Amino acid sequence: MIGTEGTIKSGVYEKALKTLNPTLTCFSQATGLFVPVIEEGIFGESILQPLFTHYLANFLHKDIDTLILGCTHYPILKKQLGQFLGSGITLVDSAQTTARQVWELLNKNNLLNTQSQSTPDEIFFSDAPERVQNIARKILNNQGLVIKQGGIN
Fold first, then answer.
1. How would DSSP label each residue in 84-126?
2. Burial state string for 88-125 with b = 16 or more CB within 10 A and e = fewer than 16
3. Cα 136 versus chain centre, distance
4. Distances (CA, A) of 141 to 39, 119, 128, 134, 136
């Protein structure tokens, strides 16, 4: 799996996977520069290829069959990661899994919005909203997205 340093150090994914299958072999790699590259909207091959080689070359020699994208930012690079790693490696999108679990939880507790009138989608960032506005709109395919800055309590 790949993720931020905090995610990798937490061991949360490996613990969960080992609970499901104790014989599973897991390899993890912190990929610290992926997030800033994504947040800056830099997707050119001249930037990504050296990053992928630096962080992921060891995976190519370990005969892995699955790579968990352990950061909600990383699915943005899914296409490029797939091209780099090859078709024999399945990429697991943790962002989709998280979104599905949130939907199921809201649905189970009757908390889904059933109103027919929609309101603009709003996203709060702890970072400067103008920095992430264009990339968030692109990723979410939502040009009407309202981006706001908010603190974490």
1. HH-TTSEEEEHHHHHHHHHHHHHHHTT-S---SS----EEEES
2. ebebeebbeeeeeeeeeeeeeeeeeeeeeeeeeeebeb
3. 13
4. 16, 16, 20, 10, 8
Phi-psi region of 122 (alpha: psi -120 to 50; beta: other; left: phi over 0): beta
Q: Any idea how long the chain is? A: 153
CB 120 within 8 A of CB 144: yes
Tokens 């997707």 correspond to what residue? 43
Question: What is the model's pTM?
Answer: 0.75
Q: Is the pLDDT of residue 55 over 70?
A: yes
What distance lies between CA 6 and its chain's CA centroid?
14
Token pair belonging to 126 = 């702890």
Check: CB of residue 120 under 8 Å from CB of residue 147. Answer: no
**Can you read off the two tokens belonging to residue 76?**
């943005």
Distance of CA 65 to the CA centre of its chain: 19
Q: In 10 A of CB 146, how many CB atoms?
A: 13
Which residue ranges form the domains of the chain, and what is each CATH number?
2-97 (3.40.50.1860), 116-153 (no CATH)
Per-residue pLDDT at 83: 94
